[in-house]
């Protein structure tokens, strides 16, 4: 679930593809996990947090992922790629036998999470737990990512014109979402559902690490003091640390 960049027509600010991709880099995705025959391939630019979610799930399930060479605006415009993924979106997943194809980060992560011994941990062992995990995963995608991506495209990627009203609306939406997250972890909870890492935590961590770079600033953190500790705690999990790296908190939000 991300905007597909063209090499010319969709980049009116003439920013290089390499520079645009570097804005999202948190950790190199070029390596693979070790253990078994690959479950499949993921196509994406480096540093895509939606891919990191899938990588953590793969490690916990002891399955391997491959990452073919990928160039945004080139690979995803190739006819062979579009024959499998018609919208040209990334991340995109292809099974090892190339008969099963997925797009949308959460769908990919959910499939990989369900493909090994950690399935019940990541996705829930009963209907109620699974529903709670799904609720928070969708919260991460709709509320957190939805509030973070438009400002990023305005002030970091500069792919769309700066719109102060829209920027402020997104910042307000993020603040509201962060308050909800604070309510959930304010008593020192390490995980959102149960007492171990689930897809819910990973789906929240991804956009929050991104927002922390430019939007989730010191003023907002004052209103949600437990959230910072929650994010840092998730990064103490070895599989999470391996793929997400460190979190950097900006003191003053970046504006246009």
From TrEMBL:
PROSITE patterns in alphabetical order: GST_CTER, GST_NTER
Pfam families: GST_C (PF00043), GST_N (PF02798)
Residue stretches making up the GST N-terminal domain: 38-120
CDD domains on file: GST_N_EF1Bgamma
The family this protein is said to belong to: Belongs to the GST superfamily.
PANTHER family linked: ELONGATION FACTOR 1-GAMMA (PTHR43986), ELONGATION FACTOR EEF-1B GAMMA SUBUNIT, PUTATIVE (AFU_ORTHOLOGUE AFUA_1G17120)-RELATED (PTHR43986:SF10)
Name this polypeptide is given: Glutathione S-transferase
Organism ancestry: Eukaryota, Fungi, Dikarya, Ascomycota, Pezizomycotina
């Amino acid at each position: 679930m991300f905007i597909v960049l063209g090499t010319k027509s969709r980049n009116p600010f003439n920013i290089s593809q390499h520079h645009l991709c570097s804005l999202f880099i948190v950790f190199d995705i070029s390596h693979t996990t070790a253990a078994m025959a690959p479950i499949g391939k993921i196509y994406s630019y480096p540093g895509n947090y939606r891919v990191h979610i899938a990588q953590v799930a793969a490690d916990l399930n002891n399955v391997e992922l491959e990452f073919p060479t990928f160039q945004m605006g080139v690979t995803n415009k190739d006819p062979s790629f579009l024959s499998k993924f018609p919208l040209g979106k990334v991340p995109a997943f292809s099974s090892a036998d190339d008969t099963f194809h997925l797009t949308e980060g959460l769908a990919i992560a959910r499939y990989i999470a369900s493909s090994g011994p950690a399935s019940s941990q990541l996705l829930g062992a009963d209907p109620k737990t699974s529903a709670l995990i799904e609720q928070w995963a969708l919260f991460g995608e709709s509320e957190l990512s939805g509030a973070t991506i438009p400002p990023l495209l305005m002030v970091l990627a500069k792919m769309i014109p700066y719109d102060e009203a829209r920027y402020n609306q997104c910042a307000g939406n993020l603040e509201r979402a962060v308050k909800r997250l604070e309510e959930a972890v304010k008593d020192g909870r390490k995980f959102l559902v149960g007492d171990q890492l689930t897809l819910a935590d990973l789906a929240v961590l991804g956009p929050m690490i991104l927002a922390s770079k430019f939007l989730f600033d010191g003023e907002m953190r004052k209103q949600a003091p437990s959230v910072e500790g929650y994010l840092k705690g998730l990064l103490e999990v070895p599989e999470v640390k391996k793929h997400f790296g460190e979190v950097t908190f900006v003191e003053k939000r970046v504006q246009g």
